[in-house]
UniProtKB/TrEMBL annotation:
<dbReference type="InterPro" id="IPR036286">
    <property type="entry name" value="LexA/Signal_pep-like_sf"/>
</dbReference>
<keyword id="KW-0645">Protease</keyword>
<dbReference type="InterPro" id="IPR000223">
    <property type="entry name" value="Pept_S26A_signal_pept_1"/>
</dbReference>
<comment type="similarity">
    <text>Belongs to the peptidase S26 family.</text>
</comment>
<keyword id="KW-0378">Hydrolase</keyword>
<dbReference type="InterPro" id="IPR019533">
    <property type="entry name" value="Peptidase_S26"/>
</dbReference>
<feature type="domain" description="Peptidase S26">
    <location>
        <begin position="103"/>
        <end position="136"/>
    </location>
</feature>
<dbReference type="InterPro" id="IPR019756">
    <property type="entry name" value="Pept_S26A_signal_pept_1_Ser-AS"/>
</dbReference>
<feature type="domain" description="Peptidase S26">
    <location>
        <begin position="5"/>
        <end position="93"/>
    </location>
</feature>
<protein>
    <submittedName>
        <fullName>S26 family signal peptidase</fullName>
    </submittedName>
</protein>
<dbReference type="Pfam" id="PF10502">
    <property type="entry name" value="Peptidase_S26"/>
</dbReference>
Amino acid sequence: MPVIAVFAALLVVVVFLARRRLAVVTVRGESMVPALRPGDRLLVLRGKAVRRGQIVVLEAIGPGMRWREGPLPEVAATDWVVKRVAALPGEPVPPECPGLPSTVPPGTLVVLGDGEVSADSRLWGLVPADRVLGVVLRTLVSTS
């Protein structure tokens, strides 16, 4: 088999695996300013274990879905949001999230935006961990 054919086959496998593990997401809104700005493009690693303090991309609340009682902003089910993990299962809930249990239950996270105005666990409550698309590895293109 010629070297070029082997290289081409290997390249196809690498691209296929990368597409399954990596995603590119564009930041919309200002909830993560100053760390991230609207228009920033982020490289996201799917399936990586989440740690407190990491920035994650998670599935937004869609119409008819509720994580917490009360009115919620309408967001298309296909949208993604970018937030920072503030607490993991078994950890204390941050004081800026009143009305939640004192400890984060299994299978859930507390996420917060870095900006002054952010729809996050203060509004949504505990976020199901299975809503996380992945962990932000780096900013690919920055608007700042």
